[in-house]
Amino acid sequence: MSSYNKAQKAAQRVHKERSQLESRKRLGLLEKKKDYRLRARDYQAKKAKIKLLKQKALEKNPDEFYHRMISSKSEDGMTKRLIAEEPITYEQQQLMDSQDIRYVTYKGNVESKKINKMKSSLHLLDASTSRPMNKHTFFVDTKKEEKKFDVAKRLGTHPSLLHRAFNRPKLEDLKTFEFNQKEDDNDEGEELQAQIIEKAKHERYEELVHRIKREQQLSVVGAKMQAKINMKDKGKKVLLKEETPTSPAVYKWYYKRKR
């Protein structure tokens, strides 16, 4: 019976789909059966997905917690994903890809020596302009001398520099700068010199802060590179602290008794 059915099908006429007429091409491509199948399957898949989402929305518990709440927030009815802080910055990645740990360690030691040298030549002072906590006490013999006592004259500096506890040059040092001014403008010239000195000091402190940040960055990169080298060691380990932009990942290796 099966052989007869096969022979009967072989004798059947093959029905071909009509091709697109030249006069109808302006209306677009003529849809064939294979195109209809694809469109129908896509429609049924979307319909089933919408039905499933509706069912989930009906069964959803408003008080239910899920971990996506931690990394997303809702704004104007739309859920937006919060951008998590990358454990490693772009500058750190560039340095780790281009250099090895020996270079990073060497540059860190160089910056550390320069920082110590600058600290030894600068006074670490507060940035505030408030009066210093330390006091300088002068002793005189009589009340009359106390009333006539001139602190600026005693210290040999300009009166406008008395509020400073640091970088207080004497008049002899200020006179080394030559100013083409009249005698009445001597006070303004000394104040201008003090401003120049203050600007130079500020630039030195900015350089010191920059070098400290650079040394800290190199220290972090070196620690992260050393942690990656340690990760190549065999043995079972567990993560104690994840990697952050300011610290490497911390792992603990389980002790294995040697036979």
From TrEMBL:
Keywords: Nucleus, rRNA processing. The keyword rRNA processing applies. It comes from the Eukaryota. Residues 1-22 are annotated as: Disordered. InterPro entries: SSU_processome_Utp11. One of its GO terms (biological process) is rRNA processing. Pfam families: Utp11. One of its GO terms (cellular component) is small-subunit processome. It is found in: Nucleus, Nucleolus. Component of the ribosomal small subunit (SSU) processome. Involved in nucleolar processing of pre-18S ribosomal RNA. PANTHER family: U3 SMALL NUCLEOLAR RNA-ASSOCIATED PROTEIN 11, U3 SMALL NUCLEOLAR RNA-ASSOCIATED PROTEIN 11-RELATED. Belongs to the UTP11 family. This is U3 small nucleolar RNA-associated protein 11.
